Amino acid sequence: MAYIDGFVIAVPTASKEELLEFARRFDPIFIEYGATRVVEAWGDDVPHGKLTDFYRAVQATPEETVVFSWVEWPDKATRDAGMARMMEDPRMDPANPDNPPMPFDGKRMIFGGFSPILDLR
Question: Does the pTM exceed 0.85?
């Protein structure tokens, strides 16, 4: 069964195009290493909660928009192998001077891997 990596980040609202350029450069590397799909979703109906919410999870400021992204893999083994190769790839190294800076604060990103337990289509 498929495997999903999920990510939530806070992006300066004025940097939407910069985020898209960043994603267009780096997201194809996921596909190169075995992912079947990568989705970047710009928040446009994200409610503020009373106890917790996406904004609090990533410490988003009023000048930032919450972005939810996911990467679909055929299975966890492909994901583990692909992510290991990506971590070794100089194209993914933030210290590489050829790479543009991330248009968001990576320290506030939340992420995790998920095994689907139900998939209705």
Answer: yes
CA-closest candidate to residue 1, choices 55, 89, 76, 99: 76
- Going by C-beta distance under 8 Å and a sequence separation of 6 or more, which residues neighbour residue 83? 5, 33
What CATH architecture does domain 3-114 belong to? Answer: 2-Layer Sandwich (3.30)
Measured N-to-C along each axis, helices 76-88 and 16-32 cross at an angle, to the nearest 10 degrees, of 110
Domain spans in the chain, listed from the N-terminal domain onward = 3-114
Please give the chain's pLDDT, 121 residues, in tens: 899 999 999 999 999 999 999 999 999 999 999 999 999 999 999 999 999 999 999 999 999 999 999 999 999 999 999 999 999 999 988 888 888 888 999 999 999 999 999 999 8
